[in-house]
Amino acid sequence: MGKMLLRRDDDTHARLRMLPLERHLNPMGTIHGGVIMALIDISLFTTWRVLTDNPVGGAVTVELNNHFVGPGTLEQPIDSVGEIVRETGRMVFLRGQVEQEQGPVASFSGIIRKASA
C-alpha cells in the first residue's frame, strides 16, 4: 500500500491518508477499487485504535460494505475518514468516506469483531 499517515481529526473522526503511486492504478488510470477497499479495511482498525486507544491485535473484519461514488486519481493524496457508530463488548460498528480534494470516492460501513479474551 505504501506510505500512510494517520491523525485524529476531532473527538469522533480519524483520517488515514494514503499517497497513491503508479502501482495503485487500474488500466483506466484511476485508483484500483481493490486498493480503495484495502484502504477502507485498514482504516476501520486505525479509526478504532486512534479514537479509543484500544489494542486492535487479534480483531477481525466481520463485514465491510462499500459504495464507489467517484474515481480516485494519482495526483492527490486519498483519505479515508472514519467514525465509530457504536461499540459493544464484542463488536465495533464504523462508517466513513474515502475522499480526495475533488470530492468523495467511496462511502463505507464496517463491523469489527474484537479479539477473544
TrEMBL record:
Origin organism is Altericroceibacterium endophyticum
Asked if the keyword Hydrolase belongs to this entry, the reply reads: yes
In this chain the Thioesterase domain maps to: 28-105
Spell out the Pfam families in the cross-references.
Answer: 4HBT (PF03061)
Which keywords are on file for this protein? Hydrolase
The record ties this protein, via CDD domains, to: PaaI_thioesterase
Which GO terms fall under molecular function for this chain's record?
acyl-CoA hydrolase activity
What protein is this chain from? Hotdog fold thioesterase
Gene3D superfamilies the record matches: Hotdog Thioesterase (3.10.129.10)
